[in-house]
Design goal:
Elements lengths: L9 E4 L7 E8 L1 H13 L3 H8 L1 H8 E3 L7 E6 L6 E5 L1 E4 L19 H5 E2 L4 E7 L2 E6 L4 E4 L9 H8 L5 H11 L11 H9 L2 H15 L3 H34 L5 E6 L3 E6 L8 E4 L4 E2 L3 E6 L1 E5 L1 H4 L4 E5 L10 H5 L7 E2 L4 E6 L6 E7 L5 H10 L7 H30 L4 H15 L4 H18 L2 E3 L5 H4 L4 E5 H5 L5 E9 L2 E2 L3 E2 L10 H8 L4 E3 L2 E3 L2 H8 L3 E4 L3 E3 L5 E3 L1 E5 L11 E10 L4 E8 L4 E7 L1 H7 L9 H9 L4 E9 L11 H4 L4 E9 L6 H10 L3 E5 L4 H11 L7 E9 L6 E7 L8 H13 L9 E6 H10 L4 H7 E5 L2 H10 L4 E5 L5 H6 L2 E4 L11 E3 L6 H38 L7 H18 L21 H26 L19 H11 L19 H21 L13 H19 L3 H6 ...
Parallel strand pairs: 22-37, 22-42, 37-41, 38-40, 40-41, 42-43, 43-44
Antiparallel strand pairs: 1-2, 2-3, 2-4, 4-5, 6-8, 7-8, 8-9, 9-10, 11-12, 11-13, 13-20, 14-19, 15-18, 15-20, 16-17, 16-19, 21-44, 23-24, 23-25, 23-36, 26-27, 28-31, 29-30, 31-32, 32-33, 33-34, 34-35, 35-36, 38-39, 39-45
Helix pairs in contact: 2-3, 7-9, 8-9, 8-14, 9-31, 13-14, 13-30, 15-30, 30-32, 30-34, 31-34, 31-35, 32-34, 32-37, 34-35, 34-37
Protein name: Cation-transporting ATPase
Keywords: ATP-binding, Magnesium, Membrane, Metal-binding, Nucleotide-binding, Translocase, Transmembrane, Transmembrane helix
GO molecular function, one term: polyamine transmembrane transporter activity
Length: about 1200
């Protein structure tokens, strides 16, 4: 698709987004279509099935290239490494019924809107496609498909107020509704017949159908019937599981699809309608009382408190404030920056409280509808999960291709042998096709998933739920885990430890909580009483845990239902706080909180405007101490501010700064900007909170560290606090140095600076000691992750480094342990270094990171966690090593099963090809016994082995095409081939051997008369020893008996040898079911070897052989077992041997982080300390490719011992 001779044939959809796609235009050609239909008929539907599997071939065969503007079919291709194609038909939407006259054209009212740019005149039609539930329409002017269902990003704050503040007209609303479609997140329950057809058309089942037809043609009735029953059972279970998931998802979303809402119509006033009629731009009126939001909306008047647990996983009320009427040219989202979310109400969240301002009702403009909303995006991520690029599955496909090539050789051999011996053409074809069904095991995909299913069940018993089973194997490869701090590593709640008040530029004595004496009435006490965003919800005070603890310490109560009269400004709905029964006496009746500026993670603070009842208005601010101090007048900040702050943060306390100022009367609180309010403040002191580590945090992190799995902390806390918590948790070794990387833009220029400072715990910076430390650091050979230094960095600094110091980025990433928020970027950066990244968080701010990580583990059972592959019922990080253990066990089980299935099919294939030489084969019951009684039962029970309880400091290999695994398969194939050929050849050299008389060996031992009667009774079936007339049972021969018995017991040997235990799975003897099955099967096989029961032998197509030969076969098998076991243990599983080989041949890991580690070990100037670089003056580059995502896992293990 590189060449595009047709102009505008190609474009990009969702450019720069996660679901970016390439789109190609095609036009159906009638004669091509006719030829394809003829092909469908002539191929009996095979061509149609091929096109179903390969939609791009369907488009290329039926259509010709054209511009996207003229296309009636579009071909989509994902831009990721999978390059998945999909075919979409272009549809036309007519709006002619809604536009009666020229004055009704949307273009007259909204020239810049996509709705006016999409209507083709004079036909009044809109060209559209639907991709993954999102509708795209053709922009006539931009000549591209654009997403509808969302308000365009280009509107400014003032434009949103002006354009949509009065609502849409009825006609505008109708046109938008037809173009956008209904505002519903509709996930219909998929009919069983659809699921059934989709499952049956899977290539695996099509291959099974081919195999079954072939077996029926060859009269393998019993085996074919057994396979049909097993396949039907498998299909039924899969369809049932998919149906249950579909019902669950349908129930999850249907409740919010159709609720009654009030909208404001331009010139028509308020109107009630069903929520599925809402369109982007509608004016939504929010009434008092609880309600669920049916869309995403921008709040433009009033204030709301919402419960966003659906999105964040935390049931903490969040305050939303109106979009400012800023008069500038910046789009509204750019103007609001990172805090745009504080103005947006998200679909599916619950509005629990509304507060109107003095202008009337609470209003919001509909921002996004349907699947374009935040909740719609969550549901789409479940409906269309991102495919996982895991080497095991790619290698499995390659190995399957090798087996098919192997089978092709066998087919050619079979055709040659049977054709040269004059067999009928039909018989030759059947025998040749039979080779494919033997060489390529139809049960292979099922066998690979068996281990994952059992692991999923074990995880469920341990309280870990999984919605993406294919990621379980990936958990076995995790070598870096990112942890959210608050609520994940530490307890959810904070304890108020103390207060360090400040008066007249000096810190006073610290006030420890709980104390006998209460705090005196004053600005500090007033700040604790009002500077929060708490509400009364369901009879309890709800809000941020920090706010709750601070407010509870005052013994005041919250009265959230009263109005408050503000002098000269009418009545507004305000929160009143009053002294409680246990509170000390104060000279005021209460304090009213008039207006809030909610906490902003970008600004690191929150503020309120409050007024004592009958008193003056005051501003109170709380937030990060450094940030609050910057907003205060210098003369109010104590001179020892930094040393005091360091004293408490170095002990792991969470410290909050408090400030206030009186507010001059005149302006309404709602008219004041945040910049006006948060300036010239007076510093009040430091609030000291204690956030204790969870009991299990330290042992879990120590376990991960011992297993050489790197841990990284994600937090928005003070860096020093985070470092202390990390050290006390064991995340950072006490001997390691922590280097703070700070990057800042230089005012008035396009340059930036980056500074490297050593963080000291108990002392302020000392130049001399830092120089010593720097020299010491440079003398030590540093190893990444487990070396002598770690980097701590804020999200803001990272963005500047990425922009101005990109050459330093890989080096900084490699040693990073702490990151301030922006978890999703952190995960992606580590993935670029070829780490397998796990993310563990409570879901509050980490939903994106949980989805992006190779394994996201949410400690929240809220709905948001549905987008996380794993959810732990217990809010403890103990689930992380448990998941890694089970992942490693599942991965090793998958390898064991793959090797076993490959060997079983190869053993059977070699045996059949040997017998083909004599125009013979295995009998029906012989195949049945091997396939069902041996392989199927082993396949089911081999995966029962549980995970080994200890995490070893290296990972299992992730690829089948690794030397140890390939060598294991090849050596065992050669061993099996040698044994079968040896048995095949040696039996022909025995003195009792006869090619024509299959009873010659036992004539001297058995009654001759009985044997004669047996011969005459078997004459009906015939023996293929020259009499070609016999059809059914021409399999009996000494070679058949020898080869079949050897190959059958060889399957048991291979199963035992490949069932690995330590270090990733429990010893094989703990899998009682497998050992019992193996013992039973071996007993039956030995019984078949030594039994001399005519009826049984006749049924199994076996012949009697002397006891000495039977003992010889057992000896051959014992030698094979000994050699196979020795090879597996002494060579294949001998890790020191492979490491020595790698060292001898100087083989190094290709993983980016390993290569970078080797570069940095040789760099004596890294890391820089007490140095500042300016972006313009730095010209260093690292040759490493920072975009790679491959992770050759076995290769990366050489340094793990």
């Amino acid at each position: 698709m590189g060449e595009n001779p047709v102009k505008n044939h190609y474009a990009q959809l969702n450019q720069g987004e996660e679901n970016e796609m390439e789109i190609f235009g095609y036009k159906t050609q009638r004669w091509r279509r006719v030829l394809c239909i003829a092909g469908y008929i002539l191929s009996c539907g095979a061509l149609l099935l091929l096109f179903y599997w390969k939609p791009e071939w369907d488009v290329w065969a039926n259509c010709i290239r054209c511009s996207l503007e003229k296309a009636d079919i579009v071909l989509l291709r994902t831009t990721d490494e999978f390059q998945i194609y999909s075919r979409k038909t272009v549809t036309w939407i007519s709006v002619s019924a809604l536009i009666k006259s020229r004055s009704d054209y949307p273009a007259t009212a909204e020239e810049d809107s996509i709705f006016s740019k999409a209507i083709m005149k004079p036909r009044l039609q809109v060209k559209s496609i639907q991709v993954q539930k999102i509708r795209y329409v053709w922009n006539i002017y931009a000549k591209q498909f654009q997403k509808v269902g969302a308000l365009e990003d280009h509107y400014t704050c003032s434009a949103i107020h002006a354009r949509f503040g009065s609502g849409l007209t009825c006609n505008e609303q109708n046109v938008r509704r037809v173009i956008c479609g209904p505002n519903t997140i509709d996930v219909p329950v998929i009919p069983i017949w659809k699921l059934l057809i989709k499952e049956v058309l899977n290539p695996f089942y099509v291959f099974q159908l081919f195999s079954v037809c072939l077996w029926f043609a060859e009269d393998y009735m019993e085996y074919a019937t057994a396979i049909i029953i097993m396949s039907l059972l498998s299909i039924f279970l899969t369809v049932y599981d998919l149906r249950q998931q579909s019902i669950k998802l349908h129930r999850l979303v249907e409740s919010h699809n159709n609720i009654m809402v009030t909208v404001c119509r331009n010139k028509e006033g308020f109107q009630e309608l069903e929520s599925h009629h809402l369109v982007p731009g509608d004016m939504l009126v929010l009434k008092e009382g609880k309600t669920f939001l049916p869309c995403d909306a921008i709040l433009i008047s009033g204030q709301c408190t919402v419960n966003e647990s659906m999105l964040t996983g935390e049931s903490i009320p969040v305050t939303k404030i109106q979009l400012p009427q800023a008069d500038n040219f910046k789009p509204w989202r750019m103007h609001c920056g990172e805090d745009y979310r504080k103005h947006v109400l998200f679909c599916g969240t619950e509005v629990i409280q509304t507060k109107a301002d003095d202008r009337g009702v609470v209003k919001a403009v509909v921002l996004r509808t349907g699947f374009s909303t935040a909740k719609g995006d969550l549901v789409r991520s479940i409906l269309y999960p991102k495919p996982m690029n895991f080497k095991l599955y790619r290698d499995a496909l390659r190995f399957l291709m090798c087996l098919i090539a192997f089978a092709a050789i066998g087919m050619i051999y079979a055709v040659c042998v049977f054709a040269l011996n004059g067999e009928e053409a039909g018989e030759v074809v059947k025998k040749a096709l039979d080779v494919i069904t033997i060489a390529v095991p139809p049960a292979l995909p099922a066998a690979l998933t068996t281990g994952i299913i059992y692991t999923q069940r074990r995880l469920k018993k341990k309280g870990i739920f999984c919605i993406s089973p294919q990621r379980i194997n990936m958990c076995g490869q995790l070598n870096l885990i990112c942890f959210d701090k608050t609520g994940t590593l530490t307890e959810d709640g904070l304890d108020l430890w103390g207060l360090l008040p400040s008066e007249r530029n000096c810190f006073q004595n610290v006030h420890i909580f709980p104390a006998d004496h209460s705090l005196p009435w004053g600005p500090v006490f007033r700040a604790m009483v009002v500077c929060h965003s708490l509400i009364v919800w369901e009879g309890k005070i709800q809000g941020d845990p920090l706010d709750v603890k601070m407010f509870e310490a005052t013994n005041w109560v919250l009265d959230d239902s009263s109005g408050h009269q503000t002098e000269g400004q009418g009545s507004t709905h305000a929160t009143i706080v009053r002294p409680g029964p246990k509170a000390s006496s104060v000279p005021v009746e209460g304090v009213a909180i008039l207006h809030q500026f909610p906490f902003s993670s970008a600004l690191q603070r929150m503020s309120v405007i409050a007024q004592e009842i009958g008193g003056e208005q005051q501003v109170f601010t709380k937030g990060a101490p450094e940030m609050v101090a910057m907003l205060c007048r210098a003369e109010t900040v104590p001179s020892n501010f930094e040393s005091k702050l360091l004293l408490y943060t170095a002990q792991g306390f969470r410290v909050v700064g408090l400030a206030f100022k009186p507010l001059q009367a005149g302006k309404r609180p709602t008219d004041l900007t945040r910049e006006e309010v948060e300036s010239d403040l007076s510093f009040l002191g430091l609030l000291i909170m204690e956030n204790r580590l969870k009991r299990e945090t330290k042992p879990v992190l120590e376990e991960l560290s011992a297993a050489r799995i790197r841990s990284v902390m994600v937090t928005g806390d003070n860096i020093q606090t985070a470092v202390t918590v990390a050290k006390s948790a064991g995340m950072i070794s006490p001997t390691n140095r922590v280097i703070l990387v700070e990057a800042n833009k230089i005012p008035g220029s396009f340059s930036a600076s980056i500074t490297w400072k050593l963080l000291e715990e108990n002392k302020t910076e000392d130049c001399g000691s830092l120089e010593d430390d720097s020299q010491t650091e440079r003398r030590i050979g540093l190893a990444l992750g487990s070396g002598q230094y770690n980097f701590a960095m804020s999200g803001k600094s990272y963005q500047i480094v990425a922009q101005h110091f990109r050459h330093l980025l890989p080096k900084v990433r490699a040693g990073l342990f702490n990151w301030s928020r922006l978890a999703i970027h952190l995960v992606e950066e580590f993935q670029k270094l070829d780490y397998f990244v796990g993310m563990c968080g409570d879901g509050a701010n980490d939903c994106g990171a949980l989805k992006v990580a190779h394994a996201g583990i949410s400690l929240s059972e809220q709905e948001a966690s549905v987008a996380s592959p794993f959810t732990s019922r217990t809010p403890s990080i103990a689930c992380v090593p448990e998941l890694i253990r089970e992942g490693r066990a599942a991965l090793v089980t998958s390898f064991c099963m793959f090797k076993y299935m490959a060997l079983y099919s190869t053993i059977q294939y070699l045996g059949v090809l040997l017998l083909y030489w004599q125009l013979n084969s295995f009998g029906n019951y012989q195949f049945l016994f091997q396939d069902l009684a041996i392989t199927t039962v082993i396949g089911v029970t081999m995966s029962f082995t549980g995970a080994y309880p200890k995490l070893v400091p290296y990972r299992p290999p992730s690829q089948l095409i690794s030397p140890p695994l390939l060598l294991s398969v090849v050596l065992n194939i050669l061993l099996s081939l040698s044994m079968q050929i040896f048995g095949f050849m040696v039996v022909q050299e025995q003195p009792w051997y006869s090619k024509t008389d299959i009873h010659s060996a036992c004539l001297s031992m058995n009654n001759h008369t009985e044997n004669s009667s047996s011969i005459s009774s078997l004459g009906l079936n015939g023996m293929r020893d020259g009499a070609h007339g016999q059809i059914d049972n021409g399999y009996k021969s000494y070679e058949n008996t020898t080869v079949w018995l050897l190959s059958t017991i060889n399957c048991l040997i291979v199963a035992l040898v490949f069932s690995k235990g330590k270090p990733f799975r429990q010893p094989i003897y703990t899998n009682y079911m497998f050992i019992l099955v193996l013992t039973g099967q071996l007993g039956i096989c030995l019984f078949l070897v030594f039994a001399d029961i005519d009826d049984l032998y006749s049924k199994m197509d076996l012949v009697c052989t002397p006891t000495t030969w039977r003992i010889s076969m057992v000896i051959m098998l014992a030698v094979t077992l000994a050699v196979s076991f020795l090879v597996e243990e002494a060579v294949i599983e001998n890790r020191p041997l492979w490491l020595l080989l790698k060292k001898t041949f100087r083989y190094h890991s290709k993983s980016h982080y390993k290569r970078l580690q080797r570069v940095l070990e040789k760099d004596s100037a890294w890391p820089p300390l007490n140095e500042t670089f300016i972006s313009d003056s730095v010209a260093v580059s690292v040759e490493e490719n920072t975009e790679g995502h491959s992770n050759p896992t076995f290769d990366s293990n050489e340094g793990a011992l």
